[in-house]
Each structure stands twice: as structure tokens, then as C-alpha cells.
Here is the input.
Amino acid sequence: MREKSPAFQWYPKDCDTDEPVRAMDDREFGFYARCLNHSWINAGLPVDPAEIMRVMGRPKSYIKQVWPRVAICFELSPDGSRLVNARQEKERIKQAEWREKSREGGRHSAATKRQPNVNGGARVVGKWLQPNGNIASASAFASAKDTPPTPSEADEAFARIWERHPKKDYRQKAETEFGLIVGQAEDPEATAAAIERIHRAKSETEDWRKQNGQFAPQLGNWLRDGGYLDPAPEATLSRPPETYRPPLAPGEDGEALRRENAEFFANLQAKTAGANNL
Here is the structure.
């Protein structure tokens, strides 16, 4: 059974600079957006205009007014059975390639973990793999690379973040979100380290630790929503719980650490402020 992705990327810059789209009025654009949604879920639109009227739930008079401009953005699929948007289909292929690479990475990681480690420690092996341009979470500061990186330090950083996070729900989602951010950064290992520093400071706060982490966000949601871009908070715990992990290394200055985090992400955002997120 073919695996369907629940979402596709929407690039505002591409949309606002595409001449056929800019020529649409608001009603045409709204119908175009609905057609893209239907096309993504159903692998295209029907070829028959009457069938388009039926599936989109609009009368003939409405379709006659809006379809001429919307139709410019669709073309016949290779087998001629559907109308598809070329850019959207490229995104579909990228996501399919990413899922396959992620599955392969997972199989390799599982096989490696089953092997004994001569150093006596756990081996965390993984590859933050995703198609170029497939940014699914708040990672506007990261720039895409033609070749996905394989940062071992980033793998280890995620393992520590997961171990430290108070709420252990949906690890695969969290790992995917982390991979999307780190895998497209100019410096994956530095980005992973900066995310870990912010998370480490957050994990010691009362808001996240109270009632066994009941009020802490799911790690995947925190990453997706850009929680790592927030300033590092002050520690608010009155006493360390049994599972507490010190947020700072011995001799580390907390205020200096917060400044380092703020400067790191500010520099990354400045570098990519004018980048083309295609």
C-alpha cells in the first residue's frame, strides 16, 4: 500500500513570485489552494472538468470563472490519468526519497545497536536524512545542503536530549523534527549543541519538572515550534530531583552560556536572512 504524507511544503517566496499565481484574484487563489490540497491527498485532480466540479463541490458557473487561471498551474500526469502540479509532485518525490532513506537509516541503526561495543558504551548510529528543501518545522535559520550530513555528534546530542527530557512521548516524531533542523543547518554539530544547551536549561525549570514532567511539552512539538530559539531560562528548581542532570559543566558560567546561545542563533539567522529557502 502506497504511503501517503499528510503535508507538503508551501514556499511563500515561490508563490509570490510565480506569475500565473500572481495573476489570480483572491477567489481564484483560494480555489487554487483547495485544488493543491485535494491534489496532494489524491495524487492529482480528475482530468474531466465535470468531475472536478463534483469533487470540489462547486457549480459549473463558478468553475467556468475560476478554472481558466487555476488550470495553468496543472498539467497531465505522465500516464495522462490525472492533473498534477509539477512543483508539488517534485515535493512528493523528495518526501518519498526521505522516508526510504530514513527507513534504511533506522534499519542500519538497529542492526548496529545489536552488535556488542568493544568500548563498553552504547553506540548511537543515525543519519539525519531528508530531501533538499523539505523543511517541515521551524527551521528558517537553517540552509539546505545538496548532500545530507551525517553528524555523529548530533546523534549523540539527540540521545542526551531525549534522556534528559521529562516527558517520554513520541520519540520517532522528536527524532524526525530534530533531524530536519540539524540536517539542513550549515554547521549541523554546532546547531545540535546549541539546541542541547537551550534544552538543558529548560529541562531544569519548575515548569517542565513539576508533577513528573506532566506540563512539559512533547519534545517533537517543542522542536517543531522553535522552542530552541527562545532565550535560555533561569533555573527555578528549589532542589534537584533524583533524575536531575546539571545543566552546566563544572566551572561553566550560566550567564555566559545564555549569551553564547543567543549569539549562536542570532548569527545563524543573520547568515540566512536573505537565503532562498527553496
